[in-house]
Amino acid sequence: MMKRGAIIVFEGIDRCGKSTQVQLLHDVLQKSRSVELMRFPNRQTPIGQKINSYLTDKAVQLDDHVIHLLFSANRWEARNQMLETIQSGKSIIVDRYAYSGVSFSAAKGLDLDWCKDPDRGLPAPDVVIYLQLSIEEAQKRGNYGEERYETVEFQRKVKDLYENKMKDPSWKVVNASQKPEDLHNDIRSIVESVIQDVEHTPLNTL
Ligand code: DGP
Ligand code: NA
Ligand code: NA
């Protein structure tokens, strides 16, 4: 039987350097093995376009529960492709997943368990790499932008949820205040061993 691919999820507050690290990892893994990049929200689908309008246009009003379910639906619409990809032996690097879903919505005051429910049944990651950075350091990297959620107060709540409510055994916390090359090396050694071990690990669901 062919060895399945791994699901490698990246999480962190806005401005933690996640997108840079995702790209660096993708570039290096691509040289030696087959790997695919996915990011959530995927703003290309009809649901993703709705999410994009909510994030970029504060005049767009959607009930907090409704946008939560749309983010989750945006992950569900990628499920079959995810399963096919890993079953074909390719690994997937995923920029944000259900942990963003729960942390960003629970930060608004929604019930934690209610937030988790819609994502139950999605493919579970083999590893979650959490880029840990203080709010102060994130801010030093340039002011938060114009998108909804990009305020210091909100990011503080998101960080607290990530660090106190999300961690499960698949989580690896990395120090995102390091130089990008050093952080990349840390991430790479974690990922190499996960990809090695995946053979012996059944794919779970959230
Ligand atoms: P990004 O494209 O990675 O910058 O993400 C866009 C923003 O949306 C970012 O502030 C994080 C937030 N976000 C990502 N996934 C979810 C989700 O499932 N639910 C909510 N409420 N917010 C999310
Ligand atoms: Na963002
Ligand atoms: Na990002």
Automatic annotation (TrEMBL):
<comment type="pathway">
    <text>Pyrimidine metabolism; dTTP biosynthesis.</text>
</comment>
<keyword id="KW-0808">Transferase</keyword>
<dbReference type="GO" id="GO:0004798">
    <property type="term" value="F:dTMP kinase activity"/>
</dbReference>
<keyword id="KW-0547">Nucleotide-binding</keyword>
<dbReference type="InterPro" id="IPR018094">
    <property type="entry name" value="Thymidylate_kinase"/>
</dbReference>
<dbReference type="InterPro" id="IPR027417">
    <property type="entry name" value="P-loop_NTPase"/>
</dbReference>
<dbReference type="GO" id="GO:0005739">
    <property type="term" value="C:mitochondrion"/>
</dbReference>
<comment type="similarity">
    <text>Belongs to the thymidylate kinase family.</text>
</comment>
<dbReference type="GO" id="GO:0005634">
    <property type="term" value="C:nucleus"/>
</dbReference>
<feature type="domain" description="Thymidylate kinase-like">
    <location>
        <begin position="10"/>
        <end position="187"/>
    </location>
</feature>
<dbReference type="GO" id="GO:0006235">
    <property type="term" value="P:dTTP biosynthetic process"/>
</dbReference>
<dbReference type="GO" id="GO:0005524">
    <property type="term" value="F:ATP binding"/>
</dbReference>
<dbReference type="GO" id="GO:0004550">
    <property type="term" value="F:nucleoside diphosphate kinase activity"/>
</dbReference>
<protein>
    <recommendedName>
        <fullName>Thymidylate kinase</fullName>
        <ecNumber>2.7.4.9</ecNumber>
    </recommendedName>
</protein>
<keyword id="KW-0418">Kinase</keyword>
<dbReference type="GO" id="GO:0006233">
    <property type="term" value="P:dTDP biosynthetic process"/>
</dbReference>
<keyword id="KW-0067">ATP-binding</keyword>
<dbReference type="GO" id="GO:0006227">
    <property type="term" value="P:dUDP biosynthetic process"/>
</dbReference>
<keyword id="KW-0545">Nucleotide biosynthesis</keyword>
<dbReference type="Pfam" id="PF02223">
    <property type="entry name" value="Thymidylate_kin"/>
</dbReference>
<dbReference type="GO" id="GO:0005829">
    <property type="term" value="C:cytosol"/>
</dbReference>
<dbReference type="InterPro" id="IPR039430">
    <property type="entry name" value="Thymidylate_kin-like_dom"/>
</dbReference>
